[in-house]
Amino acid sequence: MNAFRLAGDMTHLLSIIILLLKIRNMKSCAGISLKTQELYVMVFATRYLDLITNYVSFYNTVMKLVFLGTSISIVWYMRYHKVVKQTYNKDEDTFRHLFLVLPCFVLALMIHRSFTVTEVLWSFSLYLEAVAILPQLVLLQRSRNIDNLTGNYVFLLGAYRALYLVNWVYRFFTEKHQVRWIPWISGLVQTALYADFFYYYIKSWKNHEKFRLPE
């Protein structure tokens, strides 16, 4: 494992910790898209089917369990916790997220490494993760009050994917292995979706202004 991969994992983990701290300590999920969180549950559930059959390392297994477990717990809090669920911006979180699932699955059936259940679902998880942030970005555009924790959470999610792209570039030049175009292309698409968010996030931080996305 190289430094870029480790930094990407730690950035991803930090984003989840920030979100869970907001939900557990502030008892609030205001500004967080339940639609995006449900998509992440699908992403990790379909990507980590090899937890039982393919042992890579202790670190790899622990991180997979953490990402899957925390994504499920976040959805549970937003749906069923008697206090947290009352802070959910349901009227603003209106992106039809399930319409993203079918195109991603069809694409996985067409473009994959090999036509097996695990490989097709692995490809599906990458395609779905690339667009899973869309409901969250739409919600932020509609929100009048974006708190710092929510902004930092989304920024770290985008930074995690950017670091993974750097990791793949680094591995391309330092390791002798076949290029896996599926994670490259899906990672580029996902990072591109964050471009507008990054611009306004960094601009507001630089100018010491309250963070907001334009309509």
UniProtKB/TrEMBL annotation:
An individual GO BP term: protein retention in ER lumen
Pfam families recorded: ER_lumen_recept (PF00810)
Signal sequence coordinates: none
PROSITE patterns registered for this protein in UniProt: ER_LUMEN_RECEPTOR_2
Membrane topology, record value: Multi-pass membrane protein
Family per record: Belongs to the ERD2 family.
Protein name: ER lumen protein-retaining receptor
Organism per entry: Cinnamomum micranthum f. kanehirae
